[in-house]
């Protein structure tokens, strides 16, 4: 069998995201280390958008998005894990393009 490479194209309103690596241990504003396993409340995660479907309207490739990682589907491609979700499951985007943001920056 030949080694033909097939390009992945997202369909409809689907978004492919790679979880940001800094979502592990974090520090509070007082300097206390909070381990990644600590659960105070349901924690949302930031990820980088790698692909979008043809019906996605508000998310672009290269954006960072905020979402709940527990409710998504995971797929492995060439040894790397990615998440696939619907655009409606994205809670916020962080992008250089600003139309009407919150005034908060990453």
TrEMBL record:
Keywords: Chaperone
SUPFAM superfamilies documented for this protein: GroES-like
GO molecular function, one term: protein folding chaperone
Pfam families reported for this sequence: Cpn10 (PF00166)
The keyword Chaperone is assigned to this record: yes
Record bears the keyword Chaperone: yes
Database matches in InterPro entries: Chaperonin_GroES, Chaperonin_GroES_sf, GroES-like_sf
Function recorded in the entry: Together with the chaperonin GroEL, plays an essential role in assisting protein folding. The GroEL-GroES system forms a nano-cage that allows encapsulation of the non-native substrate proteins and provides a physical environment optimized to promote and accelerate protein folding. GroES binds to the apical surface of the GroEL ring, thereby capping the opening of the GroEL channel.
Family: Belongs to the GroES chaperonin family.
Quaternary organization: Heptamer of 7 subunits arranged in a ring.
Protein name: 10 kDa chaperonin
Organism: Actinosynnema mirum (strain ATCC 29888 / DSM 43827 / JCM 3225 / NBRC 14064 / NCIMB 13271 / NRRL B-12336 / IMRU 3971 / 101)
């Amino acid at each position: 069998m030949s080694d033909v490479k097939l390009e992945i194209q997202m369909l409809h309103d689907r978004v492919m995201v790679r979880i940001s690596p800094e979502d592990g241990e974090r520090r509070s504003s007082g300097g206390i280390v909070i381990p990644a396993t600590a659960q105070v409340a349901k924690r949302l995660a930031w990820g980088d958008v790698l692909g979008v479907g043809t019906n996605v309207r508000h998310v672009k490739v290269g954006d960072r998005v905020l979402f709940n990682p527990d409710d998504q589907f995971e797929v492995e491609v060439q040894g790397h894990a990615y998440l696939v979700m619907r655009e409606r499951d994205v809670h916020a985007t962080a992008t250089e393009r600003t139309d009407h943001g919150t005034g908060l920056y990453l």
